[in-house]
Amino acid sequence: MTVRVSRIDALRGAVAGSAGTSLHQAAQALFEAGGRRVLPVVVQRAVRTTVEREASRLLSGVGMLRQSAAAAGRVLDAGAVGARTTAVQSARAAGRQILRSVGTAAAAGALVDGGWATVQAVTRVRAGSMSQREAVAHVAQEAGTGAAATAAGTAAAALLVAVTGGVGAPAVFVVAAAASLGAKVGLDALLRARASGAIRAQLQPST
C-alpha cells in the first residue's frame, strides 16, 4: 500500500522530528543510565546501522525532508556545544525533560491538524455538506489524532536513542517523522473502521 504524504503530514512530521532531535542529549543520558542494557551490543549496532542507512537513503530522495533534517541537526549540534561544558543530567531529569517535550509536541500536533481541520470544516459547513455538530466532531478528532501521532513520533525517536545510543540527528529526525505519519495513518484507519462498524450496527434490523 502506498501512503501519500500531504503537506500537513510533512509539517506534523517536521514537528515530531525537531522535537525528537532536541531530546537527543536527554535520551543519551537514559542510555548511559541503563538503557544500554536493554539490548545486546550487537543488536544495538545493527539497529543503528540499519536506521541510519535507511534514513540516508530517504533523505537523498526527499528534498524538503533533507533540508528539515539538516536544520534540526545544526540546532542539535549547536546545543551540544554548551552541553559539553555542564555535567551530564541525571536519568530522572532526562525523563522529565522527555515527558515535557512529548507533551509540547502533542500540543503542536493538535494545533497543526486541528487548524487544518477547522479550515476544512468551515468550508464544508458553508457549502452545506457538513453540519455544525459534525464540524466540531471533525475538528476534535483531527486535533486528537494529530496530537497522539506527533507525541508518538517524538517518543519513538527518544526511545531509539535511549536503547541504542549514538544515532545521528538526521536519522532521529526521520524516525520521528515516519513514526508520526504511521501513527496518524493507523489512528485514522481505526476511527474509520469504528465509524463503519457503528453505521452497520445501526442498519441492522431490530429483533
Question: Mind explaining what this structure looks like?
Answer:
The protein is mainly alpha-helical and 207 residues long. It has one domain (7-73, 94-193). It contains seven helices and no strands. It has helices at residues 7-22, 24-33, 41-61, 63-83, 91-127, 132-164, 169-203. Helix 3 (41-61) crosses helix 7 (169-203). The longest helix is centred in the middle third of the chain and has 37 residues, at 91-127. The model is unreliable at 71-88 (pLDDT under 50).
Throw out a few tags for this protein.
mainly alpha; 7 helices; elongated
Beta strands, count = 0
Largest sheet: none
Low-confidence runs (pLDDT<50, min 5 residues)? 71-88
> So what's the overall shape?
elongated
> How many individual domains?
1
Q: Strand content of the residues, in percent? A: under 5%
Structural class, from helix and strand content? Answer: mainly alpha
Mean pLDDT: 81
Q: What is the topological layout?
A:
Elements: H1 7-22, H2 24-33, H3 41-61, H4 63-83, H5 91-127, H6 132-164, H7 169-203
Give a brief outline of the structure.
This protein is mainly alpha-helical. It is built from seven helices and no strands. It is elongated and about 60 Å long.
